[in-house]
Amino acid sequence: MLREDLATWHCGKHNISLARPRIMGVLNVTPDSFSDGGTHASPDAAIEWGLKLLDDGADIIDVGGESTRPGFRPVSPDEEAKRVIPVIRALADAGAVVSVDTRHPEVARLAVKLGASIVNDVTGFTNPDMVRVAVESDCGCVVMHAGEVSGRTPRRSVTLDSSAAARAAAHAKDDAEKPAEPSSAEAADAAAAERLDEVMRRSARGVTSPTVTLAGGNRRFTLPDSGPIMRHVMGFLGDQARELMRAGVSRDRICIDPGPGFGKLADEDVVIQRANAKMVSMGYPVMCAVSRKRFVGAVSGVTEAPARDAATAGVCIAAVEAGTRILRVHDVAGVSQALNSYWSVAHPDPRRAFVALGSNVGDRLDYLRRAVSLINAIPLTCVTGVSRAYETDPAYGIAMPVANAVAEIRTELAPLVLIDELLGVEKKLGRTRPAGQEGHGPRTIDCDLLWMEGETHAGRKLALPHPRLGERDFVIVPMEDLMHDPERFLAHAGISVLPREQRVGLVRADLGEISWE
User: Fold this and answer.
1) Under DSSP, is residue 445 helix (H, G, I), strand (E, B) or coil?
2) pLDDT band at 186 (very low <50, low <70, confident <90, very high)
3) Rounded CA gap, 412 and 349, in Å?
């Protein structure tokens, strides 16, 4: 099993800490997805929704341009790229960790080049060209199982994109003296799409597996034997992960997904979910991608897919308790709320963080003092140290000198929960934001979450680490009161600190200690 204190999923330029569970928000840029088709079909609508998912609590945005529901219409790589690439570029430019959900190597290659950090492949990297995409980049790789289980059909016969036609097309592409026919790649892609559709249609025809009769009696099991199912699923996932590693992909880039709903009946999906701990023991991050799936409806009695969000959250919490650390969901806000409350109660998780404080009206030192006291009263949070107060030059359009300080805290709250609490401190102390001043005008108090242990985030509501941390003298100097070498500390966290002469808001005077209770 992965050690929680050391587990990190390396995805391009992002190192995703799995010390606590992470949420992958589903963003379908399609007209026909099974639960939200057409809702975010235009690039502008999809980008806006992706930004909202970040503010709702998503750590990763999974962008897909082809539905894989039963009876889906295969989409050409060109059409899929037109759908997803503008969205991926915009979200990546906003600092988000973006995953591309695709079975097309051409789309994956372009997406990674233009900002995607993860390739989420429904065919489980059975296509040699998709393996090459992984080898030629440093993206994270989600290996998914799509196929029937319980020995109903041989494993290899349901492995997508591994047919003789697909492999022949891939080899022909590499052979300069024997170029592939122009239609061979399209034919292989069409065959893979047809097979995927067949898998999905079979799983949709029923929601229960045959019961098993014990020898010598009429007693029946409620679920099929887990042994054959898990040997099949884990065998495929392990084989494909090892194939990636043999090709040159490092183990810490690989995540596995048992593919709920893909060629599986409801009973089989429950068996697989109950075996999450076994999959975690394989040593890879495990993804729980059950959102709104048919089996979730079967166990909850909810027939309409969009109404299964509460039931999805319940299955996700069970998966997290078994060791799963990536939750792929549609309802990011609801699952984030459930996850944060569950994790806070069930898993002690105090982490170090720094909060910048600033005041430029009234009794500035008193506002700093009162802010520290209010922060110390935030649930599951305590102040462990406070710098001295410093008079600093105006910056970012502020017209008057500012009194600044930095508070070091320990907190067990999720970053987006903590930022809401800090905004509450500002409100209690009368902070207002006049229109047109972008938050840099007169203020009784300003509370900026600068850095939090093991956390990165992108969004309009919160960005971690703070994107301007390294240029602010009014932050770096106070941090020297709290640690020996803040520049080295921040460099270790990937934050470059500018030389003092290039910083903004230079410290001009020491205003003394901040007394608080």
Assistant:
1) coil
2) low
3) 5
Residues 6+ apart with CB under 8 A from 219: 213
Residue with tokens 């102040």: 383
Average pLDDT, the chain: 86
Residue 367 to residues 39, 40, 195, 381, 430: CA-CA distances in angstroms? 46, 44, 65, 20, 10
Residue appearing with tokens 């529901």: 69
How far apart, in Å, are the Cα atoms of 485 and each of 319, 390, 392, 491? 40, 18, 20, 10
Alpha-carbon 416 to chain mean position? 14
Query: In this model, does residue 397 exceed pLDDT 90?
Result: no
State the DSSP string of 221-257.
-SS--HHHHHHHHHHHHHHHHHHHHHHT--GGGEEEE
What whole-number distance in Å separates Cα of residue 298 and Cα of residue 100? 29
* pLDDT tens track for 262-287: 989 999 999 999 999 999 999 999 99
3-state secondary structure of 384: strand
The residue with tokens 């200690």 is 513
Find, among 351, 149, 178, 430, the residue nearest to 263 by Cα.
Answer: 149
Q: How many residues does the chain have?
A: 517
Q: Is the pLDDT of residue 187 over 70?
A: no
pTM, rounded to two decimals: 0.86
Per-residue pLDDT, 328: 98
Interval 60-112: pLDDT, tens: 999 999 876 555 577 899 999 999 999 999 999 999 999 999 999 999 999 99
Distance, CA of 193 to CA of 413 (rounded, Å): 44
Half-sphere exposure of 129 (CA within 13 A, CB side): 21
The three-state secondary structure class of 25 is: strand
How big is the chain by its Cα radius of gyration, in Å? Answer: 26
pLDDT at 179 over 90: no
Alpha-carbon gap, residue 328 to 308, rounded angstroms = 14
- Write the CB contacts of 120 (distance below 8 Å, at least 6 apart in sequence): 62, 64, 99, 100, 101, 102, 142, 144, 257
CA–CA distances in Å: residue 344 to residues 341, 351, 385, 408, 431: 5, 12, 23, 20, 29
Instruction: Determine if residue 127 is left, alpha or beta; phi over 0 gives left, psi from -120 to 50 gives alpha, anything else beta.
Output: beta
Distance between CA atoms of 493 and 465, rounded to whole angstroms? 9
